[in-house]
Design a protein that fits this description.
The structure is a homodimer of 287-residue chains.
Chain A: E1 2-6, H1 17-25, E2 28-32, H2 42-49, E3 53-56, H3 58-62, H4 65-69, E4 77-81, H5 92-100, E5 105-108, H6 113-116, E6 131-133, H7 144-154, E7 159-163, E8 165-166, H8 172-176, E9 186-187, H9 190-204, E10 214-219, E11 227-232, H10 233-237, E12 246-250, H11 256-262, H12 268-279
Parallel strand pairs in A: 1-4, 1-5, 2-3, 2-4, 6-7
Antiparallel strand pairs in A: 7-12, 8-9, 10-11, 10-12
Chain lengths: 287, 287
């Protein structure tokens, strides 16, 4: 049996009781390390589960998956994924390869950033399509998110923006020279994401958003140092959200229920803005 | 401290390790019973946690919340919610009332139907706005979902349709006569949802979907009797998905990766349909 087990969002104790029982019963335990990170060190996970954890980087999962699936018809294998196994990052390839080999598969779900952002007060059924922001380079500044964000905001919907992370990536130079040297891990900060957002708005000029647009910055959700701040893009850009992971929520039309909860996360300037807007009886606003 | 603790989707063991520890440390434990159901009886939850569980119906949560929040500044109170506390149903009212009383609040996230449907193969970042289907009555057949579904499908996006459930509801007659008699719980079946979908399409006639539209029926996610079936609306209408909870996913444009996983859940007729479509090199289809 191959178990896909979600680890949840922050500490080792965010695994479900059933998930933990299964990990303990497994013959081999892999931890997917290239699409997300847990707020803890690998050693804590080994200590907590009592199992040796095999780190599974992109090469192992995507090219050497036979190694993971070896003997999985007789043995129990756990494949641990931060968040939910089919949440922000999907692991369908491994699932399909297991199915092709007639290996029974079972998924143990957990919280994902995709549903957990409901704790900001923004209602999950008022979100449009999710967007992703990748690290821009000198020559590559993909702006396909812009059209999606435009459609969401035109429909009054909120947008979850997932921020890029690079773990165990090689530089182009090292890749070309076939040198197995990895760059240090990089996690996009909210401030970096906003700079790129504003860069694309300045280039596209379709007035989808600006420095005044109200957004919610979210960092290290579910951890003890969790941060949720409701403010304008311009203000959020200046705030240091600290260590990863960061996400950004771009609001659409905010309803009264949402504002009622969001105000507990609002900066002083945002509170004044909300009050002014309320006084003007402008209840629906996009900026 | 007031803890909002997600229970996950099916069994008592779907709570997180941290969630269980907190429940055990709490002075009072409430279970929200009116927006969802766990696949287990309340007694199992009491046995599993070793705590007396106080059932919290809508009246208690919405009108008598002071009772829940009593002494919460000195004591630890747990408010248990099936799925994620701020997932498909939000409990922002109770959260806000706690904040107003300066009671510290902590949320323990868990899987929600909103992220767990990623296990069907449909990619979560290709979903549009969530819709809900309520039980139609003789005089009340709300079709606001139709415009949202239309927008999602026009953009090629998938749609999660949440199905109505009625727990501890009073009939209009009993309500008018002030008789505290509750109707038996009702959970909308996928077949009922599809009948209502087709009823509205027949009335609105904007060709948003028809009996040929490919959808995914999902029942009792994460339980041992979990069912996931990929088929046309017309075919799904005839399938008995058994006991609750049911959800329906209406597909938008399916990409190859999604089809590769979905085919393991496909009916014979759907497999033939996919193959025919592939042969015709029609890779993007809305029906």
């Amino acid at each position: 049996m191959l178990y896909f087990i979600g680890l949840g969002l922050s500490s080792v104790k965010d695994i479900t009781v059933r998930g933990l029982e299964l990990v303990k019963s497994c013959d081999r335990v892999y931890l997917e390390t290239y699409t997300s990170i847990l707020g803890v060190q690998n050693e804590s996970l080994e200590e907590f589960t009592g199992k040796k954890i095999i780190l599974a980087d992109r090469t192992l999962v995507e090219q050497d998956s036979d190694q993971i699936l070896e003997d999985a018809n007789e043995k129990n294998i756990a494949f641990l994924v931060v968040g939910d196994p089919f949440g922000a990052t999907t692991h369908t390839d491994l699932w399909i390869r297991a199915k092709e080999k007639k290996i029974p598969v079972k998924i143990i779900h957990n919280a994902s950033i995709i549903n957990a952002v409901g704790c900001t007060g923004l209602q999950l059924y008022r979100f449009g399509e999710i967007i992703s922001m990748v690290f821009f380079t000198e020559t590559w500044k993909p702006d396909s998110f812009y059209d999606k964000l435009k459609a969401n905001r035109a429909a009054g919907l909120h947008t979850l923006c997932l921020l890029d992370l690079k773990v165990k990536e090689q530089s182009v130079e090292n890749l070309l020279r076939n040198r197995v040297i990895f760059e240090p891990p990089r996690f996009m900060k909210i401030s970096e994401c906003i700079e790129q957002l504003l860069f694309v708005e300045a280039a596209r000029k379709e007035n989808v958003y600006d420095e005044e647009t109200l957004c919610v910055g979210v960092a290290r959700l579910q951890s003890d140092s969790e941060q949720i701040i409701f403010a304008s893009l311009g203000e959020l850009k200046t705030i240091d959200f600290g260590s990863p992971l960061h996400s950004l929520l771009i609001t659409g039309v905010l309803n009264e229920n949402e504002l009622e909860m969001l105000k507990y996360f609002a900066t002083e300037a945002t509170l004044r803005k909300i009050e002014a807007l309320r006084k003007d009886r402008i209840k629906n606003f996009l900026h």
